[in-house]
Amino acid sequence: MEALRIEGLKKKFGETEVIRELSFSVPEHSVFGFIGKNGAGKTTTMKMILGLLKPDAGKIQVFGESVSYGETKTNRFTGYLPDVPEFYSYMTASEYLRLCGEIAGLASGEIRRRSAELLELVGLTDNKKRVGGYSRGMKQRLGIAQALLGNPRLLICDEPTSALDPVGRKEILDILFKLKGRTTVIFSTHILTDVERICDRVGVLSEGRIVLSGEMEALKKQYAQDKVMMEFPKEKQEEVLAVLKAQHLEPLHTEVVEPSLEKLFLEVI
Amino acid sequence: MRGMTAFLKKEFCEMIRTYKILILGSVFFLLGVIGPLTAKYMPEIMEQFLPQGMTLALEAPKALDSWMQFFKNVPQMGLIIVVIVFSGMMASEWSKGTLVLVLTKGLARRSVIMAKFLTATLLWSGAYWLCFGISYGYTRFFWDERTPRLGAAAAFVWLFGVMLIAVTLLGGVLFRGSYTVLLFTGFLVVMMFIINILPSAQKYNPIMLVSSSMELLEGIKRIEDFMAPTLITGGLLIASLIGSAAIFDKKQL
């Protein structure tokens, strides 16, 4: 079954055409990486899926039901995490989840159970602080908790990792990875390593259109280069080079691999 | 309905934790105390300021003097503070984008408008009638005389306040900044004052509800004279609410 289907979507803001003829679909249970530059129209597309913006043309379906602008019924399937989630700063995390649960029509016991579960999942258990004092990463994690509260079948995350430090990014990606197989996830970003880490399908948005899409594995095969990277223990390196030289095999490209800053950062903190 | 109740709870939590209840409560408490006290002690205060040896023949203060203070202070100071406090009702949600999450959770847009209006109206009513009660208590204590048509005069001011809240809410839906909202409500009130220059329009002008309270107490105007402006105020109130809901339904977030 298709979790999301978009056909011929168009949206203009004033004279600027942000989305022109956008069409793609996301099968159920996949993790879809929605890739594009800043300003490519990722957020606009997501807001249209949620019925928050009115498309100029085109059709959007969530689990086979059409999305209508305004109060759309399809939102009962979806959980949404905006790029910068904003909460009522005078509430605590569990108070906020209670508000969300009551709005979504969950029973009181259910809200208590789910809140405890989710706060545990995102690592905000026993946090009595009001949201006003939260760091960006904590807000992002509470954002995930609220998005998952109603057990959504489709989770829409708008650049969930872009504003975070490497640790925060890893935490969010780990949480999303845990959902794989249970919930369909649409995940927009411009950080390609994040996509490689958790997505099984991608769509690349450029100038309001999908310019590349498909399964991650298939795309990798299709665009594969016949390149091989080998790693040898340090003491064997001289030997390897000697063999290559003896066989008159000249490498096209050699480089000394330096530890990545990310690796270092994660090691020292 | 469940969503509406949940959002109402959130609104009250906001009013308490952002000190809005405290601000309104203390301002109106002060306004309630200050009216009768200034009326009672005005002659003595005046004497303090007069040069020695000079006397000023002042009439002994009456209960009406106390109510004159009330009907001057509440519309001038009180209502302005009410509008300032509630001008951020929608603006804070717009500027922070907090509505996106609750609306995608399935909260009806109308519930947002209704919950905000109800909360503001309840708070205004509480603060206003507290102020009135204090003023009434002190006035009876100092003078122990009945003031006819007092209840009606007080109710007219209250209704005008409810209408201002609805207009401020409409402004909040139309414009995203709280200063623009203040300007919008202010503009409407100024328009009412300008319209009041025309003698033929005076008897329909909602502003009469707050500007002619003393004439009603002194018997210059009758309650019937307030019927037309009351109806127009009610109409304005309902139109603002319907307008807010309709426009908010169409807003892109």
Automatic annotation (TrEMBL), chain A:
GO molecular function: ATP binding
Sorted UniProt keywords: ATP-binding, Nucleotide-binding, Transport
CDD domains: ABC_DR_subfamily_A
Pfam families (UniProt xref): ABC_tran
Cross-referenced Gene3D superfamilies: P-loop containing nucleotide triphosphate hydrolases
PROSITE patterns given in the database record: ABC_TRANSPORTER_2
Domain of life: Bacteria
Domain named ABC transporter: residues: 4-232
Family (UniProt): Belongs to the ABC transporter superfamily.
Protein's name according to its UniProt entry: ABC transporter ATP-binding protein
TrEMBL record, chain B:
Transmembrane parts of this sequence: 21-39, 74-92, 113-138, 150-174, 181-201, 226-248
Keyword Transmembrane helix in annotation: yes
The entry's keywords: Membrane, Transmembrane, Transmembrane helix
Cell wall biogenesis/degradation in keyword set: no
PANTHER family in UniProt: INTEGRAL MEMBRANE PROTEIN-RELATED (PTHR37305), MEMBRANE PROTEIN (PTHR37305:SF1)
Name listed for the protein in its UniProt record: ABC transporter permease subunit
Native source species: Bariatricus massiliensis
